[in-house]
Design a protein that fits this description.
The chain has 192 residues and is mainly alpha-helical. The chain is 74% helix and 0% strand. Helix 1 crosses helix 4, helix 5 runs antiparallel to helix 8 and helix 9 packs antiparallel against helix 11. The protein is elongated, with a radius of gyration of 19 Å.
């Protein structure tokens, strides 16, 4: 039998995840989450003393989801680092485009600025994987800087794709060519 306190805490996070995925970051108020969870507007404060803590718990769920997808895409690690980076980039862009609200929340450090709420424990391993793969692909470069630049490029592709800008300016009907171009720009041309 599950603990009712743990169950309500999880339900509040579940409601927040659903809300951010369907209505975006702006909908994530304590009052709306409580209403949808069927509890009083003060109830979330018993489990999440601050709004920041609830938002962080929701974002951790997103990072966990993205990490699981990344692990599946990278597989057993036997593919070349470049192929793993391509798979990781594809997963990242797909996640960003299909989970727009969650993706925004996960990277809104203005909303989530905190090192003690468990976000670094879920976000840094993903970035470390990216840094490792970049380092194995480009041993001559500062892998963290290249990985950060690549992440920023992918984030920009996702945002501009969401707004329809890249489809208009490039004529592309799929983000994959943009992904390959970003990888070439940061890692050098692939042997195709």
């Amino acid at each position: 039998m599950s603990d009712p306190e743990t169950g309500l805490r999880a339900r509040l996070v579940d409601v927040g995840v659903d809300l951010v995925n369907t209505e975006g970051v702006q909908a994530l108020t304590l009052r709306e989450i409580a209403r949808r969870a069927g509890v009083s507007h003060g109830a979330p404060r018993r489990y999440f003393p601050t709004h920041l803590e609830l938002l962080s718990a929701i974002a951790r769920r997103g990072f966990g989801d993205l990490a699981a997808r990344a692990a599946e895409a990278v597989g057993d690690g036997t593919a070349s680092p470049r192929d793993q980076l391509t798979a990781l980039g594809h997963v990242y862009l797909d996640f960003a485009l299909t989970h727009r609200g969650m993706h925004e929340l996960m990277f809104r450090h203005d909303l989530l600025e905190s090192g003690h709420l468990g976000l670094r424990g879920t976000s840094l391993p993903l970035f470390s994987l990216l840094v490792d793969l970049v380092g194995r692909t480009r041993p001559d470069a500062d892998a963290a800087l290249v990985a950060g630049s690549l992440l920023a490029n992918l984030h920009g592709i996702a945002q501009l794709w969401t707004w329809g800008s890249l489809q208009l300016t490039t004529g592309a009907d799929d983000f994959v060519p943009l992904l390959h171009t970003a990888l070439d720009a940061h890692l050098g041309p692939a042997d195709r």
